[in-house]
Amino acid sequence: MAKIKKAELAELQTAVTKVNELQLQIGGVEVQKHELLHMMGAMRAQLEKIQKGLQDEYGDVQVDIKTGEIKANEPA
Length: 76
Known about the structure:
Layout: H1 6-58, E1 61-63, E2 70-72
Antiparallel strand pairs: 1-2
């Protein structure tokens, strides 16, 4: 049975190995992305809860995120 040259086989094996490694890395990144998206959803829910609490306490106002200063919303 005929075979390809050793150098060609080595080159082929290296390329296949690199493709497999990259696919594995992409899978890991996708798992991280999935976890981060879940964390983002949880943080948005927490932010909404905090905002609702502030709105209940102070009314419909704007809060300067740096200083905590409250400013009344201007009527539309």
